Amino acid sequence: MADLSRSVRADLRVAIAGLGPIGKRVAEALDQGIDGLALVAVSAQHPEKHRSWLSGLTRAPAILPIDALCEVADIVIECAPGKLVRSIVEPFVTSGKTAVVLSAGALLDHEDLIELAKRNGGQIVVPTGALIGLDAVTAAAVGTIHSVRMVTRKPIAGLAGAPYIIENNIDIERITEPLRIFEGTAREAAKGFPANLNVAVALSLAGIGPDRTKLEIWADPTVTRNIHRIEVDSDSARFSMSIENIPSENPKTGRITALSVIAYLRKQRASLRVGT
Known about the structure:
The chain is an alpha/beta fold.
């Protein structure tokens, strides 16, 4: 007689929107095997550029337009420009599914997506990404957090082309010593540095929100890594964190960002889950 005490769960179907360094790294990990998950589809701005690479995977996923991903997948990993976040996330959360969002800054322009997810039983996940300690911030937020301050130092290449730099005529290429180029809130940073400071928005969403989370950004020609230092003062603990992230092929993004997505995916069907 069959053992009915153990149910067999079908694999969760995963789609990836965007095949830059992060999307490709996550696709490779899924192809190599993550228990209980299967990569079924990808979307890319120029699919022809990726066909050869995708054909080299053990199981080549379907290449679909963004608006077709929700029909075939349970989870979507957003690895695309911020302007595409809504078109990627909305169908999934409306259908009660999960959207993993890396362009966290774009959520501040589409905060209604969170309410949409709530109404329909969907979920938006912002992975740890380039920050350590988000679990501690999330725990402290259950009580009362008094202040959160973050100081970011980046190589010149990691900040080049940011709207804030262009609008304020900062000649970033001529900087020869560390220069503080921004001080303000996480919300303001997300607008001025949309491709650079998703990490600050993730910190703010875990804690006291984008309007109370304070941020400094330094352009620093003496460093080769993206350096973040966070100080948190709350009624349960006072703590500080510092991390130096090695940039990926895209200098605006750290290598650890893709690894944090993979770690999240591995938790979905893991027998032991450490961290919230």
